[in-house]
Specification:
Number of strands: 0
Order of helices and strands: HHHHHHH
Helix content: over 70%
Radius of gyration: 28 Å
Distance between the termini: 63 Å
Largest sheet: none
Structural class: mainly alpha
Strand content: under 5%
Shape: elongated
Number of helices: 7
Length: about 180
């Protein structure tokens, strides 16, 4: 008797779980391309907070507010869109694959910038080393001026690389 009761309850529970309603497509659904941008940005914000919570909090950046303003969405719209895409596995998987590809591109870009900065730092150090060797021998003020100019130009190049990378780290797929 107990086995029959358990079987009936199991079947009833299984049947009840089958009636889960899927999220309906809302009128303000965030387009798939924009959703990739939003999820990428949210992931970056969470990573920054998890990497150094104190620095993140002291920066004054309000992650949610920033994302909502930047992408012109609100929390309810994001929740509804996320629920809709989560219920449609194929679309959701496509969105997360796109997010993953974006992070892979960002990693390549950051690695390239780090290599360029390292090359510039090495060039500056080598120029200073070379100038010190000749300076001791000849005390040549013209050589010192050339080294300073080279150092300044390399530092400017490094700064311009850094500035161009700041705004272009997350290149949005969507335009709205």
């Amino acid at each position: 008797m107990l086995k029959k009761l358990f079987l009936v309850l199991s079947i009833a529970a299984f049947a009840a779980c089958q009636d889960i309603d899927k999220s309906e497509k809302s009128n303000d659904l965030i387009p798939e391309e924009k959703m990739v941008d939003v999820i990428t940005e949210i992931s970056l914000m969470q990573s920054a907070r998890n990497f150094n919570k104190r620095l993140y909090e002291n920066s004054g950046i309000k992650g949610e507010e920033y994302i909502f303003k930047k992408y012109n969405v609100d929390s309810l719209q994001l929740k509804r869109s996320n629920n809709y895409y989560a219920d449609n596995y194929v679309i959701y998987q496509r969105i997360y694959d796109s997010v993953k590809k974006r992070f892979e591109k960002m990693k390549v870009k950051l690695d390239t910038l780090q290599n360029q900065e390292r090359r510039i730092r090495d060039s500056i150090a080598e120029a200073k080393r070379d100038s010190l060797g000749e300076k001791v021998d000849s005390l040549n003020p013209e050589l010192e001026k050339r080294v300073d100019e080279l150092s300044d130009s390399l530092i400017k190049e490094k700064d311009s690389l850094r500035e161009s990378a700041i705004d272009s780290l997350v290149e949005p797929i969507s335009r709205n």
